Amino acid sequence: MPTLCHAAGTCSMGIHVILEEIGKPYEIRKMDFANQAQYKPDFMAINPKSKVPTLIRDDGSVLTEWPAIAMFLALSNPDKKLVPTDIEGMVRAQEAMAYCTATLHMQGWTRIWRTVTYTEIESEHPKIKARGKEIIDKGIAIFDKQLTGKDWLLGDFSIADCALYFLEVWFVERGNLALPANIAAHYERMKQRPSVQASRKYDGFA
Amino acid sequence: MPKLYYWPATCSITVRVILEETGLSYEDEAVDLGAKKQQSPEFLKVNPKAKVPAYLRDDGSLITEVPAIALWLALTNPDANLLASDYETRVRTLEIFDYIAGTIHMQGAARAWRPGSFSETEAAHDAIRARGKDIVMRGLDILSQTLGDKDWLTGSYSIADASLFFIEYWAREKVGYQMPANIEAHYHRMLGRPAVQRALAREGLVVPAF
């Protein structure tokens, strides 16, 4: 049975949703980020990057990086149709996932939440956070436009929607920020899915 | 003819190397990041994300994000053998790609190279640079383990190697980091490839000598 190393409320929520969409048995290894569990030797022996999501597969091999784990789960469960099979669709899925993870998360939210990792000079923090806010606002506006007239980012539901979903949770539940109209509607659609409801219940967002 | 929007020696060089490997004809247009041209109204019309690389296809549609452009070029040019066809290797290739783009570049090199984009206060810059270097060096250590004694990251040459090349070029030539020995050797192998030499030449960069 695969094991997802997951910390509540982090980007690994999106992978949790994908595992629920697939519906096969899996385990969760709960990571306590407040206690720096990702830097403890037992976890670093599994993933030296000290990051979630981390997926330990049936054969014991470890897979890291959100888009790679998502693509693996989608490709190894083709009957669930979680990623388009044509080149154009697959490339657009990768494009959306990369923007969510490398820009909105790593450039935007990281400035807002982990400001001290940029500088210990506290008087600088408001400006760093403000720049982070600019990045996430611009990014979510781009996705809002992409969703015009569509229920899901790529037309049909896909792993790209699960990447956008963890950002939506951050905006609404953790950042208390309003979402643009198409994104707000997408978030509501996500919350109707049993997979998302299971993840929210597990993480305490229900 | 497709067009690559780029700026020399940035992550757009990954796409450039891949383009040169495919042998496709393409145009290019420099977007001067130093002069903040990525924020100009003209470029925002092309790519509202205000980033390079951006790849404009013949049908007028645009692809953004290095891993997405790389995937497109690899999948539409199968003869160039830039991506394994089995999905396990394919997923491992994406894993490396995402780590380089999301962590080593966006978390590490971005801090080390442009501390001013994180804080305008000069006093903060040394610490930002140092933290950036830590992230890059830790990332190179992890990729050093992935590479092991192989010539290429995933066994045979792939888009992942072109992605690492961007970090290697930057670390070695721009900031003078000492890279792990097998990464240094990988960098030399990359520099020996005609496609890499053409990519450097088209960006007005000199092929480093050893």
Question: How do you describe this structure in short?
Answer:
Chain A is of the alpha+beta class.
| Beta strand count of chain A | 4
Oligomer: heterodimer
**Helical region count of chain B?**
8
Number of helical runs of chain A?
8
Would you tell me which CATH topology of the largest domain in chain B applies? Answer: Glutathione S-transferase Yfyf (Class Pi), Chain A, domain 2
Going by CATH, the architecture of the largest domain in chain A would be: Up-down Bundle
Fill in the CATH topology of the largest domain in chain A: Glutathione S-transferase Yfyf (Class Pi), Chain A, domain 2
**Beta-strand percent range of chain B:** 5-15%
Number of domains of chain A: 2
Structural summary, described in words:
The complex is a heterodimer of chains A (206) and B (210). With 206 residues, chain A is α+β, with helices and mostly antiparallel strands. Chain A folds into two domains: 78 residues, 3-Layer(aba) Sandwich (Glutaredoxin), CATH 3.40.30; 107 residues, Glutathione S-transferase Yfyf (Class Pi), Chain A, domain 2. Helix content of chain A is 54%, strand content 7%. In chain A, a hairpin with a 5-residue loop joins strand 3 and strand 4. In chain A, helix 4 packs antiparallel against helix 5. Chain A is globular and about 50 Å long. Chain A starts with a strand and ends with a helix. Chain B is α+β, with helices and mostly antiparallel strands. Chain B has two domains: 78 residues, Glutaredoxin (3-Layer(aba) Sandwich); 107 residues, Glutathione S-transferase Yfyf (Class Pi), Chain A, domain 2, CATH 1.20.1050.10. Chain B is built from eight helices and four strands; from the N terminus they run βαβαββαααααα. Chain B is globular and about 50 Å long. The mean pLDDT of chain B is 95. At the A-B interface, helix 3, helix 4 and helix 5 of A face helix 3, helix 4 and helix 5 of B.
